[in-house]
Amino acid sequence: AAVGPTQATAAPGTARITQVQVRVDGVAGKALVAQSRRSQLQVSVQFNADPHLPPPSVAVAVVREDGLGIASALSHNDGVVTTPDAQGQGVASVTFPQLALLKGQFRIEVYLLCERGLHLYDMAIEVATLEVQQSDPEQGLVSLPRYWRMGTGLA
């Protein structure tokens, strides 16, 4: 799924998203299908920022079709700093291996924010839709990592 592409320089004091690409298992598209706990989701965001600003941060959100936010990833929270070139152009990609979402319909949103992730420069809403399929009866929104221990009494 793509927004843009454009290469013009960002206006002073601003940053903007120039292109977004969403892939599931290596296939790019706007309407994608993923397998719960098997597929890999990758979101790549190309941006252009005023080179005199600190490098912006990037956020990706997974939103259920009714608007409920399910998960998000923010480069600043993860300790990752974008690396735009001297003209302010850069790309940030985030990968979700073994996608933990359970069966449902979702959309992907992208946000370009200040270096601390507080102030919004630009956003791209519904850059892709994502249908997650699953073959087992697990219920809920996500499959939480877990381990089991068996025994004969409570410890």
Task: Describe the fold and architecture.
The model has no long low-confidence stretch (mean pLDDT 94). The strands form two sheets. A five-stranded mixed sheet has the order 3-9-8-5-6, with no helix packed on it. The protein has strands at residues 15-24, 27-28, 31-35, 41-49, 57-64, 69-74, 89-96, 104-113, 120-133. The termini are far apart. The chain is built from no helices and nine strands. Helices cover 0% and strands 46% of the residues. The protein is mainly beta and 155 residues long.
Ranges where pLDDT stays below 50 over 5 or more residues in a row are none
The percent range for strand residues is over 45%
Give the H and E element order: EEEEEEEEE
Note the gap between the termini: 51 Å
Radius of gyration over alpha carbons?
18 Å
Q: Count the helices. How many?
A: 0
Number of strands: 9
Please tell me what the overall shape is. elongated
| Sheet with most strands: strand arrangement | 3-9-8-5-6
Overall mean pLDDT stands at 94
Helix content: under 10%
Which structural class do you get from the secondary structure elements? mainly beta
Largest pleated sheet: 5 strands, mixed
Would you summarize the structure shown here?
By secondary structure, the chain is mainly beta. It has no helices and nine strands.
Layout: helices, strands, pairs:
Blueprint (H helix, E strand, L loop, with lengths): L14 E10 L2 E2 L2 E5 L5 E9 L7 E8 L4 E6 L14 E8 L7 E10 L6 E14 L22
Parallel strand pairs: 3-9
Antiparallel strand pairs: 1-2, 1-4, 4-7, 5-6, 5-8, 8-9
